[in-house]
Amino acid sequence: MKTLVLGLGNDMLSDDAIGLKVVRELARVNSRPDVEVQETCLASLELLDLLVGFDRAILVDAVLTETGSVGDIYDLPPESLDIGSTPTSLHHVDLPNVLAMGTGLGLKMPEDVRILAVKADDITTFGGPCCAEVEAAVPRILDLIEARLST
Amino acid sequence: MTKTQTTTILINPITRLEGHGKIDIFLNDAGDVENAYFQVPELRGFEEFCRGRPVEELARITTRICGVCPGAHHMASSKALDAVFHVDPPPAAKKLRELFYCAHMIHSHIAHFYALAAPDFVLGPQSDPAMRNVLGVIATVGRELGESVIRHRAYAQDIQALIGGKATHPVCGLPGGMSKAINEEERKSIQDMAESTLEFAKFSLKLFHDVVLMNKEYVDIVLGDVYTMQSYYMGLVDQNNKVNFYEGDIRVVDPVGLEFARFKPAEYLDHIQEHVESWTYLKFPYLKNVGWRGLVEGDDSGVFRVAPLARLNVADGMATPLAQEAYEAMFSTLGGKPVHATLANHWARLVELMYAAERLLELATDAEITSPDVRAIPTATPDEGVGVVEAPRGTLFHHYKTDSDGLVTDLNLIVATVNNHAAICMSIKKAAQALIKKKTVSEGLLNMVEMAFRAYDPCFGCATHALPGQMPLTVLIRDKSGEILQKVER
C-alpha cells in the first residue's frame, strides 16, 4: 500500500509552519519504502496533483478552532471539512471537493485520508516562529503518524 | 434561512478564520441595502519580513504569498528585479518567460472555467447544488471531457516545471533573465503540448457557444442588471494595443471605452492611489486622476476593474488570429465595447485561453527559443524598480526599493484582488439589493453573491493557508446602527 504523508503550511507564517516541521522530522527518520513524505505550501485544487496515485494519505496542517487549546491535535476525516457548497474561488476549493473531483475525473485518489491538525494561535504573521504549544505537538503527531502507518 | 441559524457552528471543531470571507450588508432606515463590504484576514509583517534581505531573493519569497498563483508573483518579481538592477534580459529570456507565463495562464484558466464557472452555466444556476460542480459538468458533457481537462491542465504544469525548475514554485527568474535555457528536445515536447492545448481551447469556446450562448436564459443572466456595473478598466497592452500578459504599457479605458490613460509600469503611482477605510485593512486602489467618490459606478468614480474582461475591454484586439475571432464574437454578441457584464469574465477567460494557447505555440516554434543566451549579468548599482504582469485575476504590481548593496529597504505589492476590491464590494451590493427589500431577505442570496464573486475569482486568503479549506461565506445583515439583524451562511 502506497502512503503519502503530506505536510501543509507556510514556513514564513508563524504557526502555519507546523505541518512542514512535522514531515521534515518524519522524512529524516522514515525508512519505509512504501511511505512517501512530502511538504508543500500549495493549497486548494493544487493539492490534487500531489494526492494522485496513493492508496492512503495523511495530511498534517495547522487549524483554527473556536474551542480547545493551542497545541491540541485533531484527527479528522476529510468529510469534517465539507461545508457543502460550490467553491467560490480557485483559492478555496476544500479537500472533499478536491478528492471528489479527482475521483470523478477517473484519477486514482487515496481512499483512506486522514488529517492531523494542530490548533494554532497565529497563522497570519510573517516571519514569526511557531509558538511553544504548537511546537510541542511535533512528537505527539509523529507518534500518531507512526501508529497509523503501523496499521 | 431562519434566525435560529445564527448560532449554527459551521464545522466543528474547525471553523472559519476570523473575518474570512465575511460580508457585511448595511441597510438604511427603509430596510433596503445601503452598502456591502467584505472582510478578509489581515496578514501582518510581510514588509518587515522582506526588509534587509537581498532583493534577488524576492522572486522566490513572494511566490510563497499564495498557495495558488505563485507563477504570477514570480514573473512580476523577476521583472521588478530587472528594473532594480537596470538590466534588460536577452530576447530569448523574455520569450522563455512569456512562454512559461502562457502555460501559467492556461493552467489557471482551465481550472477556473471547468471547476468553478462551468457548473453554474452547463448545469444552470438553479440546478441542484449537489450536482452543480465539475462532476455534474462531466456527467452532462461526457467523460472524455474530464480526461481532457486533466490532461491539458497537466501539460500546462509540465511546461511550467520544464522552464521554471518546479511547476508550482518556479525558481527560473533572475535579474537580467533566466537561470537556464531549453534544448531542442524540450522545445519539441512543448510544441506538441501547445498544439494539443490549442485544440482544447477551440473545444472550450465551442462548448461555451453551444451550452451558454444557445440558452437565452443564461445570456439574460449574464447581461442582467444585477451583474452589470459601469466602471473604468485596466490592463496591459502591447505596442499595437493588443492584450499582453507579460509586458507592455498599462492602459485604462473609461466606462464608454475611450482611452483614459496609458502609462509605463514605473509610473503607476502617478495614476493609482489607494483609499483606506477604517473597517478593513485591505485598501481600495482607484484612479488618482478621477478621484475617490466611494463605492459608486460611473465616469466620475475612480473605481476600476482588472481581470480577463477588463483586459479585453482595454485592448483593441488579440494578437493571434483565433483569439481575435473569439474576441470579435464576444463583443458583437454582448453589444460592443466595453462590456460591463461582470459574468462575461467567464467568456473573456476562454478568449484568453485561446490566446495563451496560440501564443504558446508561436513561442514554442520561435527560432530563438532554444538560444543559450538567456541572461544579461547586471552591472549597475541596484536602487528601485517596478514589475507588472497580468496575473490570471488581473494586473499585479511589484515595486521594490533597495540600498546600494541591493538589500531591500521598501516594497509595495498590489495584487489583482486588491485592484478589484471596490468592484467586488459593489457587485455584492448589487446582488444584495436585488434580494433584500425592506429587511426581507429572499432565498438565493448566497447563490447570487457567490456568482458575482466567482466571476472575479478573488484571492482572499493569499498565504493564510491553514487547512486545505474552502471559504465559508458568511453574510451579516446589519441595520444603520450596525446591529446584526440576520446572519446567512453555509
Describe this structure in words.
The complex is a heterodimer of chains A (151) and B (490). In chain A, helix 1 packs across helix 5 (137-149). Chain A is built from 5 helices and 5 strands, in the order βαβαββαβαα. With 151 residues, chain A is α/β, with parallel strands linked by helices. Chain A is globular and about 45 Å long. Chain A has a single domain, classed as Rossmann fold. The N and C termini of chain A lie close together (11 Å). Chain A has helices spanning 18-29, 47-51, 95-104, 132-135, 137-149, and strands at 3-8, 35-40, 56-63, 73-76, 112-119. Chain B has 490 residues and is an alpha+beta fold. Chain B is built from 15 helices and 17 strands. In chain B, the strands form 6 sheets. A 4-stranded mixed beta sheet of chain B has the order 2-1-16-17. Chain B has a 4-stranded mixed beta sheet with strand order 7-6-5-10, covered by helices on one side. In chain B, strands 11-12-13 form a 3-stranded antiparallel beta sheet. The termini of chain B are close together. The chains are: A alpha/beta (151), B alpha+beta (490).
Strand content of chain B: 15-25%
Q: Approximately how much helix is present in the residues of chain B?
A: 40-55%
Mean pLDDT of chain A: 88
Number of strands of chain B: 17
Strand content of chain A: 15-25%
Overall shape of chain A: it is globular
Draw up the topology in text.
The complex is a heterodimer of chains A (151) and B (490).
Chain A lengths: L2 E6 L9 H12 L5 E6 L6 H5 L4 E8 L9 E4 L18 H10 L7 E8 L12 H4 L1 H13 L2
Helix pairs in contact in A: 1-5
Chain B lengths: L21 E6 L5 E7 L6 H5 L7 H4 L8 H15 L6 H32 L11 H8 L1 H22 L8 E2 L2 E2 L5 H30 L2 H8 L8 E6 L11 E5 L5 E5 L4 H4 E6 L2 E8 L16 E2 L2 H7 L6 H13 L11 H20 L19 E8 L2 E9 L5 E7 L1 H4 L1 H15 E2 L2 E2 L3 H12 L17 E5 L5 E6 L1
Parallel strand pairs in B: 1-16, 5-10
Antiparallel strand pairs in B: 1-2, 3-4, 5-6, 6-7, 8-9, 11-12, 12-13, 14-15, 16-17
